[in-house]
Design goal:
The chain is of the alpha+beta class and 185 residues long. 24% of the residues lie in helices and 23% in strands.
Amino acid sequence: MALTDSNPIPLHSVAPEFQLKNVVTDQWISLPKQNEFKATVIMFICNHCPYVIHVNPELIRLANDYIPKGVHFIAISSNDVTHYPDDSPELMLVQAKQLNYPFPYCYDESQEVARAYDAACTPDFYVFNAELKLAYHGRLDASRPGNDLPLNGADIRHALDALLLNEAPSEIQYPSMGCNIKWKK
């Protein structure tokens, strides 16, 4: 497992469009329209990464807390399943059902969406405002496997709370850290 930081992305960048299949419903998912939601959280995750496994409980709490407030969540797995079969769509479906993900879990087979977002690691979080401009890109919180810091989603919660108050989140943002995305050769 290679420890990788998220790539720096300029704030106010416009969210790239995409269309991916949700492995749970077998329905196509697209980026929402501007002003359809108060904020949109795009999360690059996967099944096997210990950093994602560590944050899964907070991802679910976070989504359950903020979906009723008008925030939309989409999880995307872009890993090469030939070399990482634990991240296959079939096992994504199993995980989504076992953990009761309250958000779509989409498979990016071509890896085009991960490239469009310049995603580097799992987990990698992007928070867009209602106009689909990047307001936050970074870590969930300071917790990591084995560091004993509380898993509370503080960084993303602060960003979402600011957006819900029509304020800009702090520009002091720490990169996410986790397993590198498993790119196809």
